[in-house]
């Protein structure tokens, strides 16, 4: 296969943004019928590179060849013309439109030059869908179909446009384990039909499972390109991070004490009246980390919102240190001893246009000494901010800097500093390492363990199974708003957890 | 006060200043096309305002309600809300002050005026509060609601004047009682009978209040947090809905007070509106040009008031239709809203500065 | 006057008042469906009413007779397109706040039209009264039908045009590829962008259509109702049109229904004293009706908003 001309060849691509070289002389060859994985940490430059291939950005230096011919890809249109399609991580789908409308958008079959020929469109989609075994309903509206189905619509969009080269950007992030394996099947089918695939990911398992070749990039540079069969996860991890990483968190065995959080029969419905929490029970004790494993969308967000008072529940009891905090206000719950590292730090954790100083008292501004008779005590606030920033090594030019201009890792450190400093009895950490690089991930995980060692109860919610297994002392699996089982990290594995996360109830007990 | 200076740093001041200059240039070009002499026009505009004490006093009279509606728009803006309804709140403030000024009798001199002012402020606050409430509780877009309430206020005001306050045979209300007047007789005399009133003083105090409340108080911190990021505010334990209603209410109080001053200090009656008075809409322009900062608004309202008041003299002195000033003001907002254009105009300057740095 | 004639005339007046609202509301739909809020409809109508008043006058002056009002309509169309470009440039190209940019249009319309009227008509506050407004075109045979003959088929050509426009707009939005793309741009611009649709260009088209149609709407008021343009020829109709658009859920058919309803509430004012039930309602309340109803509808329809998802957001593909 090496003898053949690559279908895509990137030569010495360099792309600079103010203050950063996102891609530094990157070269890459994609051969026909190959699944080529692009591995790198968050911020390594994978997405930038693929946006260049898809015509969303222009490289500052370097060239691209498609089937041996040098090309300039200056727009997605051009990329489509060249047979390059992209399955975006955040789906580019119009919610109120039907599947068919989304797919044909921009290349609609027409009658008389203007009239949208919907019938022909549906027929075409149906045919394509059958050819690749995708099983989508062409007339369904996007807002009514599952995430996995939506992803297939994205794939169909590229196929409809005649793409021979498909770029998948972190395609498994939002899928259930079943959907992931189905996706793997679809990808195999695609290469069998002669397509070539670039798979962007930071998940080693997927790479080992499906790719033929893997290119590792770190800080914008290509570190190595390897045949998948000639490498192993440890080698890949080392090359991705730049040092040997164990992915194991150092910790002593837990010594759990009294129950801090007890949740009984928690039930909550969404706008449409569907139960998103369904008689959920769990317990977290002082001095332990309870990890909640589960696929996104099984009630994790609703659980966190209920625990922190951000939303109300219909039924059930939440007790903190034996006191009922069900449906109390966020402030009441915070004051009762709950700290919360939110899932989405930009949405909930920080006011991005506030200074770091103002952000560090987001939940305590109304208390002495920050509030003096209704007025803010600037010097006390600044003192607190300075202390936290030093203690937790938050890299910021000054405490007057707006939170917006800090890196994701430093923003997260700031939030953790603020939440831990409140000295809570219960620390809720939702997706605390999402989007961070390995250094920051290690920092965050260490902090969680340190809190546990100080006798705090820690509730960790994460979609990353590795994180759950490495950090937790106990694991509870959430599925369709219920805790469907509980296991110990040292006694379980991915397969077992994966099955439980998919709803195959194994352990009968509740956490 | 270091923060004040930071807000008025060279860069942030540059955009409105350039926008003002560009706006005046657009006005000049349009005057040239119309066959007028823009230099003569602008000079007669300014000489009108600064030519004698009467006109100067009247310009201050013109500026006062603009400060209030400008503050109203800016206050809501700081809490993340676009109060395009200052117009309606201003009308409700006028109407309430007129009603109290006419119907309430037997109150002593200062008290009656105070009651009338408070009534005006409350009416404006409640009118804006409706918008705030619907936004907070029902999630309705505040822009559309407040536009609809502007027109509702216009006709409601007319209804009240026509049916309860009307001066027989005229298209306006009776005069308010003297006890409700906030005119300052001696100052008016000093300004050659220009209509001077206490509202101007209150307007300046309102700007100071705005500044302290917004940046120095606990409640202001909450409002700003809600304005920047409602989700984070909720996470932090703030009552987002209450803050939205509060912000709209206070915003409406500013506008309502502006309307009350106009009745109690200037006209002493309320005419039946044939069209919207426009002071509330002007407030949007004032707030934008003043960068939504209370002290910026004092300046921009002054500019705005001078241009508007002076335009009458301009039409007298240079025969230019005074509507040209609306075009100038419209252009200024245009350039501020589309800052990209201003930056583009300024680009050569920036490049030069960068070069100097390199050297 | 017998009751059949009265009802016929009421329907007729309703449609006359509705015509401007229909044009403007449909215009608003094109702009907002593409994702650009258009508070400037009022100003765009003002520009149109102005252009119609001035151009028709000069056409009459040049001896064009009955063709004059059509020259006026054409002038309004051109004027509306030019004025809407201001909104488009500011809010699409320079990513200005769309509401503020709309406010600018209203500001500029109020100032510049009166400025030009004074300039062109020797300082007068309004254009010279037109001799040749639009005349009604009775449809042969149909106009003889009792009640609806007088009500519907004895109307201005602009009214017929407005009704045709509703159907055309519906067809364009929901049955053509252009409509699909326009709506996609208003719902999810980056999705449209990645399939090669020029987002900014589509939005320009939406805004320009809104300018052209709103201006035509304004022109119909000058040419059928007032026969002159002055500062209060357009006072609030643009906002009622926005109300009709929202009331009609951004759908041409819905907006048509709402516009006719609001037109009716204006028309009924003229027939006040004729009905026992309406005698006691203060006129001001009738004027308020469209606005209050819009608030009620918005409050009632919460959670089921049919507004385009990306309405009001400038499209920025993101630099990183």
From TrEMBL, chain A:
Membrane-crossing ranges are none
Task: Specify the ABC transporter domain's residue ranges.
Answer: 8-244, 261-505
| Pfam families assigned to the protein according to its UniProt record, in alphabetical order | ABC_tran
The cross-references to InterPro entries, in alphabetical order and at most eight, read: AAA+_ATPase (IPR003593), ABC_carbohydrate_import_ATPase (IPR050107), ABC_transporter-like_ATP-bd (IPR003439), ABC_transporter-like_CS (IPR017871), P-loop_NTPase (IPR027417)
Picking any one GO molecular function of the record gives: ATP binding
User: What GO cellular component entries does it have?
Assistant: plasma membrane
Q: How does it sit in the membrane?
A: Peripheral membrane protein
Keywords, A to Z, come to:
ATP-binding, Cell membrane, Membrane, Nucleotide-binding, Repeat, Translocase, Transport
Q: Which domain of life is it from?
A: Bacteria
Location(s) in or outside the cell:
Cell membrane
**Family named by the database record:** Belongs to the ABC transporter superfamily.
Q: What is this protein called?
A: ATP-binding cassette domain-containing protein
The taxonomic lineage of its organism, from the top, reads: Bacteria, Bacillati, Bacillota, Bacilli, Bacillales
TrEMBL record, chain B:
GO cellular component terms, alphabetically, are:
plasma membrane
Tell me the domain of life.
Answer: Bacteria
Per UniProt, what is the membrane topology?
Multi-pass membrane protein
InterPro entries of this UniProt entry?
ABC_transp_permease
Primary site of residence: membrane
Q: Provide the alphabetized UniProt keywords.
A: Cell membrane, Membrane, Transmembrane, Transmembrane helix
GO MF annotation, one: transmembrane transporter activity
Q: Where in the cell is it found?
A: Cell membrane
Per the UniProt record, which residue ranges are transmembrane? Answer: 12-33, 63-86, 106-130, 142-161, 196-215, 244-265, 297-318, 324-346
Put simply, this protein is called: ABC transporter permease
Q: What is the organism field in this record?
A: Paenibacillus dendrobii
TrEMBL record, chain C:
TM spans (from-to) = 6-27, 39-58, 70-92, 99-121, 156-174, 204-223, 285-303
Q: Taxonomic lineage per UniProt?
A: Bacteria, Bacillati, Bacillota, Bacilli, Bacillales
Keyword terms of this UniProt record: Cell membrane, Membrane, Transmembrane, Transmembrane helix
Name of the molecule in the record: ABC transporter permease
Predominant location of this chain?
membrane
Identify its membrane topology class: Multi-pass membrane protein
Pfam family name, one: BPD_transp_2
Is this entry keyworded Membrane?
A: yes
Q: Which domain of life is it from?
A: Bacteria
State its location(s): Cell membrane
């Amino acid at each position: 296969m090496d003898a053949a001309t690559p279908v895509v060849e990137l030569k010495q691509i360099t792309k600079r943004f103010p203050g950063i070289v996102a891609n530094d002389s990157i070269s890459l060859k994609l051969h026909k019928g190959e699944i080529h994985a692009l591995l790198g940490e968050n911020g390594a430059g994978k997405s930038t590179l693929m946006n260049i291939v898809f015509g969303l950005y222009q490289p500052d230096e370097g060239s691209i060849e498609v089937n041996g011919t040098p090309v300039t890809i200056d727009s997605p249109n051009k990329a489509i013309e060249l047979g390059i399609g992209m399955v975006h991580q955040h789906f580019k789908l119009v919610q109120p439109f039907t599947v068919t409308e989304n797919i044909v958008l921009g290349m609609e079959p027409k009658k008389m030059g203007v009239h949208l020929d919907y019938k022909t469109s549906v027929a075409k989609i149906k045919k394509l869908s059958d050819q690749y075994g995708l099983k989508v309903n062409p007339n369904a509206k996007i807002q009514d179909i599952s995430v996995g189905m939506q992803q297939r619509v994205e794939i169909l969009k590229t196929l409809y446009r005649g793409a021979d080269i498909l770029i998948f950007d972190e395609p498994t992030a939002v899928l259930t384990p079943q959907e992931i394996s189905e996706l793997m099947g679809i990808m195999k089918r695609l290469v069998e039909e002669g397509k070539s695939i670039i798979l962007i990911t930071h998940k080693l398992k997927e790479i080992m499972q499906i790719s033929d070749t893997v290119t590792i990039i770190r800080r914008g540079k290509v570190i190595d390109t390897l045949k998948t069969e000639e490498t192993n996860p440890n080698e890949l991890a080392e090359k991705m991070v730049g040092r040997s990483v164990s992915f194991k968190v150092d910790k002593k065995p837990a010594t759990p004490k009294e129950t801090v959080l007890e949740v009984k029969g928690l039930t909550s419905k969404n706008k449409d009246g569907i139960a998103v929490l369904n008689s959920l029970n769990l317990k977290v004790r002082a001095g332990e980390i309870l990890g909640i494993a589960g696929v996104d969308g099984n009630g994790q967000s609703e659980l966190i919102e209920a625990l922190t008072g951000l939303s109300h529940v219909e039924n059930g009891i939440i007790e903190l240190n034996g006191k009922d905090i069900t449906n109390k206000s966020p402030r009441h719950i915070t004051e009762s001893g709950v700290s919360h590292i939110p899932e989405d730090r930009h949405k909930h954790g920080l006011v991005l246009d506030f200074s770091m100083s103002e952000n560090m008292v987001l939940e305590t501004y109304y208390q002495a000494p920050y509030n003096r008779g209704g007025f803010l005590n600037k010097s006390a606030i600044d003192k607190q901010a300075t202390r936290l920033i030093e203690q937790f090594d938050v890299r910021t030019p000054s405490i007057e800097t707006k939170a917006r201009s800090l890196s994701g890792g430093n923003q997260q450190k700031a939030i953790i500093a603020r939440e831990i400093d409140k000295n809570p009895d219960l620390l809720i950490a939702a997706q605390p390492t999402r989007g961070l690089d390995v250094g920051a991930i290690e920092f965050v995980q260490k902090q969680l363990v340190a809190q546990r060692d100080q006798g705090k109860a820690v509730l960790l919610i994460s979609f990353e199974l590795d994180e759950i297994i490495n950090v937790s002392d106990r694991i509870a699996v959430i599925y369709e708003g219920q805790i469907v089982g509980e296991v110990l990290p040292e006694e379980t594995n991915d397969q077992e957890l994966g099955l439980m996360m998919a709803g195959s109830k194994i352990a009968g007990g509740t956490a | 006060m270091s923060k004040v200076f930071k807000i008025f740093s060279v860069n942030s001041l540059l955009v409105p200043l350039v926008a003002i200059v560009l706006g005046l240039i657009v006005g000049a070009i349009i005057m040239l096309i119309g066959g007028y002499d823009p230099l003569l026009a602008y000079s007669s505009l300014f000489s009108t305002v600064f030519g004698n004490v009467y006109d100067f006093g009247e310009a201050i009279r013109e500026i006062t309600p603009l400060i209030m509606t400008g503050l109203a728009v800016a206050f809501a803006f700081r809490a993340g809300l676009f109060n395009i309804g200052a117009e309606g709140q201003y009308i409700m403030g006028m109407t309430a002050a007129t009603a109290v000024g006419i119907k309430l009798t037997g109150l002593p001199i200062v008290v009656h005026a105070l009651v009338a002012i408070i009534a005006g402020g409350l009416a404006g606050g409640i009118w804006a509060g409706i918008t705030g409430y619907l936004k907070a509780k029902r999630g309705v877009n505040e822009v559309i609601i407040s536009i609809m309430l502007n027109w509702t206020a216009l006709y409601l005001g007319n209804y009240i004047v026509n049916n309860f306050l009307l001066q027989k045979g005229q298209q306006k209300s009776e005069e308010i009682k003297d006890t409700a007047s906030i005119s300052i007789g001696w100052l008016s005399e000093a300004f050659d009978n220009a209509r001077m009133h206490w509202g101007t003083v209150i307007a300046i105090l309102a700007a100071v209040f705005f500044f302290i409340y917004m940046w120095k108080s606990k409640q202001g911190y909450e409002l700003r947090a809600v304005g920047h990021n409602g989700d984070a505010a909720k996470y932090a334990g703030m009552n987002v809905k209450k803050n939205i209603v509060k912000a709209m209410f206070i915003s409406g109080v500013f506008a309502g007070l502006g309307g009350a001053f106009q009745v109690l200090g200037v006209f002493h009656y309320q005419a039946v509106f044939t069209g919207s008075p426009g002071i509330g809409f002007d407030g949007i322009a004032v707030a934008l040009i003043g960068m939504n900062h209370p002290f910026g608004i004092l300046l921009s309202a002054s500019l705005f008031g001078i241009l508007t008041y002076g335009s009458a003299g301009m039409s007298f002195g240079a025969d230019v239709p005074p509507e040209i000033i609306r075009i100038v003001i419209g252009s200024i907002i245009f350039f501020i809203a589309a800052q990209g254009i201003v930056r583009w105009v300024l680009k050569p300057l920036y490049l030069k500065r960068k070069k100097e740095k390199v050297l | 006057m017998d009751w059949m004639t009265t009802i016929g005339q009421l329907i007729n007046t309703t449609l006359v008042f509705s015509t401007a609202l229909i044009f403007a509301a449909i215009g608003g739909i094109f702009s907002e469906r593409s994702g650009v809020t258009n508070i400037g409809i009022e100003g765009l109508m003002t520009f149109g009413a102005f252009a119609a008043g001035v151009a028709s006058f000069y056409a009459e002056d040049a001896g064009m007779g009955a063709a004059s009002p059509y020259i006026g309509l054409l002038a309004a169309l051109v004027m509306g397109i030019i004025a809407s470009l201001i909104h488009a440039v500011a809010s699409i190209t320079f990513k200005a706040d769309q509401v503020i940019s709309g406010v600018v249009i209203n500001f500029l319309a109020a100032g510049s039209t009166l400025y030009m009227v004074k300039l062109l008509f020797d300082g007068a506050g309004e254009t010279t009264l037109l001799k040749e407004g639009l005349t009604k075109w009775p449809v042969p045979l149909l106009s003889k039908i009792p009640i609806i003959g007088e009500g519907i088929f004895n109307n201005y050509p602009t009214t017929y045009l407005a009704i045709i426009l509703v159907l055309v707009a519906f067809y364009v939005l929901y049955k053509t590829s252009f409509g699909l793309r326009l709506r996609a741009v208003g719902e999810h611009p980056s999705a449209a962008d990645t399939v090669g649709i020029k987002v900014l260009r589509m939005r320009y088209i939406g805004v320009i259509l809104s300018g052209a149609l709103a201006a035509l709407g304004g022109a119909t008021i000058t040419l059928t109702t007032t026969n002159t343009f002055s500062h209060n020829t357009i006072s609030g109709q643009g906002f009622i049109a926005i109300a009709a658009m929202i009331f009609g859920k951004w759908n041409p058919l819905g907006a048509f229904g709402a516009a006719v309803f609001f037109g009716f509430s204006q028309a009924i004012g003229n027939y006040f004293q004729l009905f026992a039930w309406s005698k006691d309602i203060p006129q001001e309340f009738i004027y308020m009706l469209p606005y209050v109803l819009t608030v009620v509808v918005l409050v009632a329809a919460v959670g089921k908003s049919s507004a385009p998802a990306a309405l009001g957001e400038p499209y920025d593909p993101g630099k990183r």
